[in-house]
Amino acid sequence: MTKRVLAFDFGASSGRAMIGIYNGETIEIEEIHRFTNDPVIVNGVMYWDTLRLFHEIKQGLIKAKHAGGFDSIGIDTWGVDFGLLDKDGRLLENPIHYRDERTKGMIEESFKLLPKDEFYQITGLQFMELNTVFQLLSLAKDRPEILERTDKLLLTPDLFAYFLTGVKSTEYSIASTTQLLDAKERKWSKRVLDALGIPERIFTDIVPCGTVIGQLSDEICEELGVNKVDVVSVASHDTQSALIAVPAEEKDFIFLSSGTWSLLGTELDAPIINDKSEKYNITNEGGCENKASFLKNIIGTWLIQESRRQWIREGQEYGFGELESMAKKEKPLQSFIDPDAPEFVPAGNIPRRIREFCKNSGQPQPESIAQVVRCIDESLAMKYRMALEEIEDCTGKHYDTIYVVGGGTQSKLLCQFTANACGRRVVAGPIEATVLGNLVLQLVAAEDVKEIDSLQAARNLISRSSVIDTYEPQEQEIWDEAYQSFKKIIE
Question: Which residue among the candidates 9, 100, 158, 238 is catalytic per the annotation?
Fold first, then answer.
């Protein structure tokens, strides 16, 4: 038996359409369409170019048809962002980017309406200005008329699925990124919505990961000349799709989903929401089989990506592999930044901000491109160790291995630094974790694929189908000493 399933995977800077071919034993993947995801700033507002992205979905469907067809479709994206629909199902405005400045100060505003402790105890989510709840609070305060005109809110992957099917629903894992969900009850929190003045009526029912929500609409099939196939709400938050692909067989493990964002955590049967997890600002996301992902959000390779864009603007264009080779030759452990410092969140001249951070903290300033890259990678590795220690403190468990998945596994330098900083073995791969998780969950949803009947079976399939690398810790004493310096600099 052969199944062909189609995944659309959207990152913050690019997207692609990938075909998965399952032969009963392994799954092979083939990229059929790739495109950039470029935000657009108009009159000081940063938008997602949502309609162009949907155009790219259509191009992917056409190419998939010509590549041999497909049996189902799944979509995963970044979290938190959304589109607002009127009573006729039309977009009220182009969805706004989570890096837009409209959420500045909204965390503090929310605490005036809902005490911080109670807020965290309900949602179990890390407080970040980009979260959906703070985007909506800014609308409730500054543009209440648009919420009055809103019939339904759909998060990004659910919005694209609606465009394809006409069905309005909200998938569980993406709902859990909003900070509007009761983490223990797994439903929208009336207490949070009422306290912040966000209308409950704009939210749809929540469906589990792996739900077949509908089929391609007649209009889409007619326009593109494709067959009517199932559209599956996979684990539509890309982190949760990537987590499906972690090649772990043990129950207790640490994962690091490494890409534009780094998400380091563990998988639990139930959320951990207590004073300690609140102090560390650790999040509880929902995933497959109602698991809780207990994790920290850390800025990831965004710092390298945005630095590279700055260097290109300055006329110096290097590939990511070249940047890594250059950084490898630099003197180690000279300067550190806090990757999550607020000055590194907006787009712009990251290398200059890195030099300013180091200057203000009394450290040598990384001047060359290679020194900046090394500073970023070493600082990320140190931040991973800090998050690991916090998670171990909350769970009371020790983890011998860190499973790294996603695009960041292509940086052998960062993987080795992570092993060095954390003092743990790093198992890296698969690179295409998010896509594989998306594809395999479609197979789980297919009624005629009986052998993939659990999350562990899905992980085993992906592991059999992937290349995995291992990194052992090196120079432990040097890195341990440097970690103490790192903690003093960022605390």
Answer: 238
Q: Do domains 3-236 and 246-431+450-491 have the same CATH topology?
A: yes
- Identify residue 438 by its one-letter amino acid code: N
Residue 171 and residue 158 in contact, taking contact as beta carbons nearer than 8 Å: yes
Confidence of residue 451 (pLDDT cuts 50, 70, 90): confident
pTM above 0.85, yes or no: yes
What is the topology classification, in CATH, of domain 3-236? Nucleotidyltransferase; domain 5 (3.30.420)
- Helix residue ranges, H only, 93-244: 106-113, 116-123, 132-142, 144-149, 156-165, 172-175, 190-196, 218-224, 238-244
Is residue 430 reached through a cis peptide bond, with omega within 30 degrees of 0 on the bond before it? yes
Cβ contact 176:182 at 8 Å: no
**3-class secondary structure, 282:** coil
Question: For domain 246-431+450-491, is the CATH number 3.30.420.40?
Answer: yes
| Active-site residue flag, 238 | yes
One-letter identity of residue 426? V
Which residues are CB-contacts of 36 (< 8 A; sequence separation ≥ 6)? 13, 14, 15
